[in-house]
Design goal:
By secondary structure, the protein is mostly helical. It contains 10 helices and no strands. It folds into 2 domains: about 1-60, Orthogonal Bundle (Arc Repressor Mutant, subunit A), CATH 1.10.10; about 70-223, Tetracycline Repressor, domain 2, CATH 1.10.357. About 75% of the residues lie in helices and about 0% in strands. The chain is globular and about 55 Å long.
Amino acid sequence: MSTTTDGRSTRWDEHRATRRRELVEATLRAIREHGAGVGMDDIAAAAGTSKTVFYRHFTDRAGLYAAVSESVDARILRDLGAAMGEGGVDGSPDLASAGAAPRAVIAAAIDSYLALVERDPEVYRFVVNAPLLDTHSGGDPALAVTSHIADQMSALLRAALASAGRDPSAATVWGAGVVGMVRAAADHWLADPGLSRSELTTHLTDLAWGGLSAAWPDPSPSA
């Protein structure tokens, strides 16, 4: 009897998870079609359902925003992990498997962030500016996304410093600093896209590497 109940519960959980993913994908389609300021009516229409269904699965607008942000977060982290070379302990970047000089890895990480901005600008605005939310506590609505990216960057810096026999204690603040710089530049780039993505990546890499190189010896001087 309990096995049957557990089985039904598991199937229902899987159904709910699938339905949530479908609704998030519909929300992303609506954002791309109508812009970051899309309303719930347009989102529901893109999903071919009602707002009530969305609220049933996400409770409120904040819940839907959080689910969309998690989806975007996962995509950025996947691209960032590929750029920096995954394979380290606990999922941290593995410099040996990256197969690139440190400066090139930093450039690839910066470019992977800017790639999302260029590829999906309205989705990026939706996550960063959170126009779907009428009000928030005054904090940064996109903090969870940028914090995860900063964690990835910090892990890369920590591994590099440790492998060079240097104190890795500054890695956390450096990772947050690099990501904060890239995000600020990306926001400005969206408003005033005077540079190509490649040009912006180069400028930001030069700026970041100018400071990081002092503590992160690069075995390839020509990089």
